[in-house]
Each structure stands twice: as C-alpha cells, then as structure tokens.
Amino acid sequence: MKKPFLRRFTKRILILINVALGLMFLIGANVKYFNPDHWWFLSLCTFILPYLLIILFAFFLFWLLAKPLYSLIFILIIIFSLNAIENIFAFRMSSFSMEKSPNSIRVMSWNVEFFNILNHKTHPEKKQEMFDLIRQYDPDIACFQEVVASDKIGAINYLPDILETLQFSEYAYSYHIKNNFDREHHFGILILSKYPILRKQTVVNNPNDYNSTFQFVDILVNNDTLRVFNAHLQSLKFSQDNRDYLDKGAPTKEQNIKESKSILAKLKKGIIRRASQAFFIKDEINQSPYPIIFCGDFNDVPVSYAYEKIGMGLQNAFVKKGSGIGKTFNSIAPTLRIDNIFVGPEFNVLQFDVNDASLSDHFPIIADIKMDSISANNSSK
C-alpha cells in the first residue's frame, strides 16, 4: 500500500532541509580551503556553525526514531568535520585552580576596551576592578588589546602607573600614531611580562588597515627563550545601530534592508582583511626560531579562515583544556569565541579559563602552560 502523498512529501522536504543544512555546516567547517578574496561569502557559514550543529543533532535523533537509515547523514557530517567540531565545542567539564602548578607559565589575553577611559568619570571603580581581576589571576605574561595608555605624567591611563599597579616591570607597548585616542593617549596593544624581555618588535602591515599593527617580544624563562605574539585583527566596526538590529531587529522593512546591507558589507570587509592579516602574521610566526605563544583578539570565530591560518601547527588552549563553547564576547550572540591563546607543540596546556566578569566587552582568557625544558631547568636548580 502506498504511503499518503502528504507523508511522502513531508519526508522528502525534511531530507532536503537536512542535507542542505549539512552542506552548509560542511562548507563552514572547511572554509580554510576557500580563499576569502574570492569566496568570502562562504565564511558567513562559520558564524552559525554551533546553531547548525544543534539542528543537525536534532535531525539525527528524529531519524533514529523515524527512519534510522537517514541518521547516517549526521554521522557522515561528523566524520568529515570532526576537527572543526573539536574547535567549536569542548566536550568536557573543567575547573580552574588559582594556584599555579610548579614550573608553569600563566598567560592572560584580554581585550580591555580602553581600560574604561570613556567612563572614567562616571564609573572610576571599573578600571580598578579590572586591575583587581588581573592581579587575582597573577599572570606571568599578559597580552592586552585595545589598550589606551600614555607616557605623559598626569594622563588618565598613565602607563607607569598601570605597570606598578599590576606589578610588572617588563613591557612592550605598540601603536600606530594615526590611531591615537586623543592628544595624550595612544591606542594600541600591550604585552606585560614578569620574565626579562630580550627583544621588542612592532610589526605594521602595509597598507595599514585598522588595528593591523601587531607585536611580538622574546622573553627569557630560565635558560629558554620564548616568542610571545600579541595581535588584534580587523574588527567588524559594528555601529550601535548594527548591534541593536542584531539584538532586536528593525521596526520597518526599509530599516531592515538598510541594516542588513550595512552588516553584510562590514562582514565582507572584515573577512577579507583578516585573511590578509593572517597571512602576514603567519609569515612572522614561521620565522620564529623560538617556541611560540600567540595571544589575540581575532574578531573571528573558530574554524574561520584567519583562525585556521594562524593556528596551523599550534595548539589552542581552549581546545585542549576548555569546556563548553567558551564565549569571549559579551554581546550580539552567545557563541562568539573570538579571543584565543595558541601555543607551540613544545608546550603542555595544563588548564584554561574564561572569566565572565562584565568589565569589558570581552571576557579575559587565561591558560597555564608548561614546557619540559623549563621544568628540567627549574628542577636542576
């Protein structure tokens, strides 16, 4: 007896939807193979990968009950995108110990959103809370992005005061003068170290895109030299209207069209420029004669083109020891992990944490790492 037409039609529609979503997921999971100069629109799939995975898993459960053969769609998707899934979700529960393990190095990366200089009059306590949180974790190496600081006595964010408060003596501050915050303050990126800094290097991409300046330092840890990178990749530069639209939508059709076009144009520009910056940064990484620690605000999600390019051959601390989704940006979407700590294969990642204190528009990330040669040097003393 033939099945009713409506039932057959519904089943075919569900299969088509399942396959279409599966193809979108596979494209997003493997976008590293598509140069954004020509295929930038494929990178849009990376922003919705967590949601696609949840929907595909729901299809998998449905087919197990209704038609088990079609559950193979999900299984095949998993097989061909396992590495991407590991970068999106950390399927483990983890806790973070404030007490450092012997011979370990604690690394913090945080987009500090100007150290609250815009609200220093109305909320002067917020910067102090940021400093208290940093001191609580007591990192050995701290990499900060979107830093507004000054070397002029009396400035609001006087850099020597910041160093003294955070108890760091070694630092490297990089900025481009065209991005100065005001007459007194620079806008840049900052590395702080409790180990001796042997070399400081600011690297400027040419042409100089917004926030394309990045830096690295060579530090001496016992008898080992490490190279620490700090970067802030091209931001999307969403306006407040863009963010409001993403959160609530627009009241009229015309405004919806206008905001959608604005957001799409900014996404395209950001995807292409971050890819260009990633190539430039990766060239510097490949030239390093020392083990690598790379910190940064990527302004891009896991498995994006820039993420995969920079992270090639390195370990992501979240993937190794994090849990859940690891959200690091506190607005727009609950799945935005756009800040990362990568380390070279010489390191073991001991633990990882995302602190969800709402002191900046980003959450700080912290990783404890250890290198065998450092451990050996310490134990021999």
Question: TL;DR?
Answer:
The protein is an alpha+beta fold. Helix content is 38%, strand content 22%. The model has no long low-confidence stretch (mean pLDDT 91).
- The fraction of residues in strands falls at 15-25%
Shape: globular
Mean pLDDT: 91
Read across the widest sheet, the strand sequence of neighbours is 3-4-2-1-12-11
Termini gap: 83 Å
Number of strands: 12
Q: Which percent range fits the helix content?
A: 25-40%
Largest sheet: 6 strands, mixed
Describe the SSE topology.
Elements: H1 5-29, H2 36-39, H3 49-66, H4 72-79, H5 82-88, E1 105-111, H6 125-137, E2 141-149, H7 159-166, E3 170-175, E4 186-193, E5 197-203, E6 214-221, E7 224-232, H8 240-248, H9 253-286, E8 292-297, H10 305-311, E9 315-316, H11 317-321, E10 339-343, E11 347-354, E12 365-371, H12 372-379
Helix pairs in contact: 1-3, 3-4, 9-10
Task: Please tell me about this protein's structure.
By secondary structure, the protein is of the alpha+beta class. It is built from twelve helices and twelve strands. The strands form two sheets. Strands 3-4-2-1-12-11 form a six-stranded mixed beta sheet. β1, α6 and β2 form a beta-alpha-beta unit. α1 packs antiparallel against α3 (49-66) and α9 runs parallel beside α10. The longest helix has 34 residues, at 253-286. It is globular.
State the main characteristics.
globular, single chain, 6-stranded mixed sheet, alpha+beta, 381 residues, 12 helices
